[in-house]
Amino acid sequence: MEQPASSVPSTLQRVIHFYDTKYKQLMIIPIILFILAMIQIGVQVATTGDFINKGVSLKGGSVITVLQPADIDQLQQSLAAAFPQFSISVRGITDAGALIGITIESAAQTSEDIEAIVALVRSQISLTDSDITIEITGAALGEQFFAQTFRAMIAAFVLMGIVVFIYFRSFIPSVAVILAAFSDIVETIAIFNLLGMSLSTAGVAAFLMLIGYSVDTDILLTSRVLKRTEGTVLERIISSIKTGLTMTMTTLTAVIAALIFTNSEVIRQIMVILLIGLLLDMINTWIQNAGIVRMYAERKHAR
């Protein structure tokens, strides 16, 4: 006999049932992601000496901005062949999808080296002096700034851990929140490296922003599960997922819009980091952290 349509489990109900019964097995996914990210960063350190690709503003060098369109591939090949010691990277500047200029990043810092690069560019593109802008960052200044920002991130994690522990007064939920935020950062760094991007000072700010976004959803989940008493643990988790995903999707909409419409390399890097981090945060919060908090809450209730 055919079952009434109203009694047929909906797709959402099947998803919730799977999430309810397989949440421990699902926790393998964030574990694998974290292990792969650590492997990538380890390989990065072994091959380059740094755990992340640094841009000119962090390791020192020069950025030459040319407000004229050019054949990026051809110019990249010419500059790389003529100046292999400077690790030159040529990127396009677009406006509404049209190429309006290029940026040339290199490790060159002396005026003689930069003039030689500009001379080669002039030989391939017709330029006036007003078409060219040059920015130089000293290696010592870049390294000092990177060291300071790295210490700032460590301090942010320590202070965040103290605040979370004071609020929840429980070791395991506090560690789960910090672990989720740490996983977001580590995995985002790994993917950032794989994309071949170079971190700038703006990118550092994006990682600090990502810590805040990650902690928001983790605090939402943990406080709703542990501080509230109505409903079952699963019902409180599902309620927090609805709220948390609404927050994340709203932010993702703004991030994607910025990626589509901006032609600023600085804004683009910030948005790319946030996009990667927010997508990873959904896994680390609603699978990893939710699983840890659920096991803790159920064992606490059983006792």
Write the layout of secondary structure elements.
Layout: H1 11-21, H2 23-26, H3 28-48, H4 56-59, E1 61-66, H5 72-82, E2 89-95, E3 98-106, H6 111-124, E4 132-137, H7 139-168, H8 171-194, H9 201-227, H10 233-261, H11 265-302
Antiparallel strand pairs: 1-3, 1-4, 2-3
Helix pairs in contact: 3-8, 3-11, 7-8, 7-9, 8-9, 8-11, 9-10, 9-11, 10-11
Please explain how this structure is put together.
With 303 residues, this protein is α+β, with helices and mostly antiparallel strands. Helices cover 70% and strands 9% of the residues. It folds into two domains: 16-54 and 141-302, Up-down Bundle (Multidrug efflux transporter AcrB transmembrane fold); 61-137, Alpha-Beta Plaits. The chain has helices at residues 11-21, 23-26, 28-48, 56-59, 72-82, 111-124, 139-168, 171-194, 201-227, 233-261, 265-302; strands spanning 61-66, 89-95, 98-106, 132-137. Helix 7 runs parallel beside helix 9. The relative contact order is 0.12. Residues 1-8 have low confidence and may be disordered.
